[in-house]
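TODO from last week: model Penicillin-binding transpeptidase domain-containing protein.
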Amino acid sequence: MGRPGVAGKPGVAGRPGVSGNGAPGHSAPSTGAPGRAGTGRPRPGGAPSGPQRPNPQRPAGPPGPPRPPAVLRLGNPARRLRAALVVMAIVLSLFAGRLVQLQGFDSKVLQAKAAQQRVQPETLPARRGSITDAGGHDLAVTVEAREVYVDPKDVDPAKRDLVATTLARELNKPKEEIAAALAKTEQRYIPLARDVEPPRAKRIMGFELKGVGVKETYRRLYPGNSLAGGLLGFVGVDGRGLEGLESAYDDILAGKDGKQSIELGANRQRIPMTRSQREAPVPGRDVRLTIDRDIQWAAEESLARQVRQTGARSGSVIVMDVRTGQILAMANAPQANLNSWQSAPAEDRANRAASEIFEPGSTNKVITAAAAMEAGVVDPDTAFRVPDHIQCADRQLRDSHPHAPELLTFTGILAESSNVGTIMVADKISSQRLYDMFRSFGFGARSGAGIPGEQAGLLPQWQTWSGSQRCTIAYGQGISVTALQMAGVYQTIANGGVRVTPSIVAGTTDAHGAFVPSPAAKGTRVISETTARRIALMLEAAVGHEGTGEEASIEGYRVAGKTGTAMRYDEKCAGYCGYTATFVGFTPADQPRLMALAVIQDPKKGHYGGAIAAPVFKDVMTFALKSRKIPPTGTKAPEMLLRPAE
């Protein structure tokens, strides 16, 4: 039914006291809509109006009751359920497909990646073998060490400064360098220092710095610092030999590194009860040298002192056992400290005794003497009238000092080291015979000692010799040799004419640590024993009071030897600059046991071999004789004729 009190609507009562237009006490005529009260208002002047807009003002009176809320009509629930099921089916099918892919098709690949992330391969370094002298004293030894590393990702960012400060102090490194390593958070392993002593590494780990760890390793140590430095060489940061015997015998010394694989968790700690694989390292074998540590030390001391006192550029000394060819000392000066070899110039790390070539000068005259005596054209007493100069092709060659023509025996020529006299002797033999004698003594080829860096020297073919070169080669200019080659010449003469291949390695140890000696050196006859003995007597005269090598004489011992003074070719000045001073000899001269050679390169205070190199020979040989307990023979040298009667 209609609402009471509302006019104009059929069956609906109008509001009490309110007319159809809402004005109290008035009624409005209908506008024509049946059953609905008119809302129009008459225009002024009585003209009727059309339909009027409702009055926007709310009619006075109490508000009516609230309208009922709008009703939301819901869709079909069955259709919504079907749509939800379809969506769920699609999502589940995607999950199922991914699971099939991961567990079926890609399972092995993912397992391998997971294992790769968990399994940490690690190299187990092998202990490098030792290098010892002939008596078993360590010259190069391997000791335990630690490698300190960081895992930047595992370091607490708030403590990076503390970690950098602590490690910089303990490792003696710049803090900036440590901080830069810690900033590389994308890396998990950065070595900071190798060759750290175990006590220091233990102290570092005592700080309990997260992300800092140590790894067991080894370091190479040279107890003698620079002792035999040029001969021994050194190893790199990876423990492999880089130069010298360390490089040449690396396969024997290095051993074989082992391997280990363990499974690590997210915190980089080993997962207990997981599988691990381990291949034990094989330690390296030892190498024993023929070097005598004490003689080596004496040679280096005397040589270094003379190089300093004469302002020389460098020097070398070799001491050899005459009978066996074993090298007892091979010294160089200046020489690098092997425990800090990186700071030394490259030339100080070289073994000059085997690698540096030079013109031998008058020490070479014994080869000319041997060739002439083997040819039978001269003997020690053959006399020559020797001027102080001689014309040789287009050059005039002279003795070291001017003198009037003098009558000298061949012994006198050698003792006084006359260049002109030696040329006169060489004129009695062919160039080919002289060349062949050079080759027989080992010139122009490596010695066969197996010493790293050894050079073959320079010996031109005899067919290429110029007129003047044939003369200069006879007294040691125009060819180049190493100290080792020249030492071999005098070892041959001292050994009765038999050349023994020099040796530096006495032997090695086998896999069980037993010593295995090197094969005995091969001996080759170069000249007859008679010629060798005659030359030895002539060389004794050279060390006598009338010879050039008097400074090499040793009280109580018979010494045979020869001085050498040669102009020195230098690539820096592209010509001859300075001199090479040499002395080489052996003792006891009548029963030779030891030979020694001293070479001083480019001395600034003097340059003659008798004054510069002979004193070094004397110091080293005197020490070696005492060290080896070699007594004097007790015999006296026979008188040798230097100047025959007119």
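Done. The chain is about 30% helix and 20% strand.
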